[in-house]
Amino acid sequence: MKKSGLSSLSKKQKTIISCGLILSAAVCILSFCLWARSFKNPQNVKPLTEEQSLSLNAVLDQTYPLNRGNDLKPLPYPIVQAQLDVQSGSAILIDTSNGCVLFEKNADEVIPPASITKLFVMYIVFKEVQEGNLSLDELVQPPESSWAINMPPSSSLMFLGQGHKVTVRELLKGLAVASGNDAAIAVANKVSGSTKAFVERMNYEAKALGLTNTYFVEPSGYSEKNLTTARELAKFCRIYINTFPQSLSDFHSLTEIRYPLKENLPSWQQSKGDTMAVYQKNTNPLLGVLEGCDGLKTGFIFESGYNLALTCQRQGVRYLSVTMKGPGKGSKQGNYYRCQDGTTMMEWAFSSFADYDPKKHISQSYTVPTPGSKTKFINLVPAWNSTVTVPHLRAQTALEDAQNVVAEVQIPRYIYGGTECGKIWGQIQYKLGDTVLETVPLVADRQSLKSGLWGRFWGALATFTLRA
Hints:
By secondary structure, this protein is an alpha+beta fold. The chain has 12 helices and 17 strands.
């Protein structure tokens, strides 16, 4: 009777088969170990597609609106409210890089903005230029309604007149430097065809920016029925200068204007040359006086008092203040108090705070293995990456304190079984000594789908190597 199966094999054949099985097992084990160990060597993750980027930003914008949006916010650590000697009835001071409020006084009181209204006019013009609907060098023939002689009593003027030829750029200078009511009317008609239509546009833009207490009835700021608050003005000004930073160097920091020049005059006045030009200094009295001041806009009507939107930048740090209902009997005294208030707040801000920019100091992406999912690695990214406002606590200056900030990054060794886009898996904690300045979540930059049963099994085994 013949033997069957292994019993029929010779000893040599059995040895060969056994060695083959052992070798195959060893190859499998080695392959698995190499595959599992590959999770310990992070690879470059494919950049997000446009669709993935949009999905991530949508999730983060919805989850962290205060940190990613345009709203102003309190500092992320407790401070004692400064007792500043600010004479204005309403005031606010912010860090423009992140929207943190450093100081405020009656900041939600509704007050006419006066000529600060003109910043909204300039914002709309810059948007029109950005969208290709308008050119700064485009010529405008001021309509009769914008001539200086037709402006209300006591108006600030650029001195537009009949037959003048003026560029959009010159009108913006007239708004920023001379605070010309005539320039505001000319721009309104150029952009929207009528003052009424332009005011509707102003209110549309204010609503789109979430300025619920801001409302306009005309574009120059002359009317007391234009309304806003110091907080909303600060929010708008931050958006304005962050969106159009060139507005500061090209317009708001200009110290003077001369208009009309010969080139602006109609043919019947050309023989007068530049003799009709009116020289006017910038209405902002702190330009060239307060270190780093390069804007922004003054405003005054009797119902508002002396208003000032002020911004200064020193060593890369920019602050912005808004003061409204400033006291004063006459422009000389009014300017004195708004200069005093602006200087007080700015000097206090620069001596008490500085900015730490995470993007300049630490990585903004951390690769983590994802065993048990269809994606081998994903990146963890900060939920927001704005600067951190650092208080002056230890060093000789606030800037030195900012240089001593330490970022502690906490991330998992691995993420098993996939993840949703935007899910929190770690954090970055910014500290100055023992003081925690801010904690920012680290989130998955994309979705990673869970593997099938077999993939999850091998992924679970791989986690043992990642724990070592």
